[in-house]
Amino acid sequence: MRLAGFKPTSLFDGFGINFVIFFQGCKHQCVGCHNPTTWDLSGGIYWSFDNVTAEIMKYRPLITGITLSGGDPLFQKEDALKLANWAKNHNLQTTLYTGFNLTELFPECCDWNFDYIIDGKFIQSCKSLHYPFRGSSNQIIWKKTNCGFENIEAGGNTA
Asked: Rounded to two decimals, what is the model's pTM?
């Protein structure tokens, strides 16, 4: 998989203490993106799955989950889903950041092993520091439930 880098521990990229994996590649190219160096689909550095999981395991006693960010991990969907499955098998919470809206991913996303999906493109005119884990107010945090996903801030609205 092509990656832009890691942040071994973060309190700001999902619930708990997360190991953040920045995937390389994004076609959304949002105006005002905080990480435009991750846009190039052929940029970054190639990492094998085993090397990525070995890096995560170095922090296993400390972290409670992994966060897949980017770029957009869904431009390398197979690798992103494989990491999510591995994390769930190692009792790690999983968070996915994507510029796609959940409605574009539904119902396929119901089979994915993400506890949280934070969706939506960054929109500069909606930029806000008042929403945890997000850069703009249009982005939504979805929590996986038994029957889909629930918007955790909208009183139970589901997808």
From this structure: 0.96
pLDDT digits (tens, 9 = 90+) for 44-100: 999 999 999 999 999 999 999 999 999 999 999 999 999 999 999 999 999 999 999
Q: With the C-alpha atoms ordered 34, 36, 37, 40, is the resulting torsion angle positive or negative?
A: positive
The residue type of 15 is F
Q: How far is CA 70 from CA 67, 138, 147, 153, in A?
A: 10, 18, 28, 24
Residues near 42 by beta carbon (within 8 Å), at least 6 away in sequence: 2, 25
| Long-range pairs for 120-125: beta carbons < 8 A, 24 or more residues apart | 121/28, 121/30, 122/30, 122/32, 122/33, 122/34, 123/30, 124/30, 124/31, 124/32
Q: How far apart are alpha carbons 16 and 18 in whole angstroms?
A: 6
Burial grade of 31 (CB within 10 A; 0-12, 13-18, 19 or more)? exposed
Under DSSP, is residue 25 helix (H, G, I), strand (E, B) or coil? coil
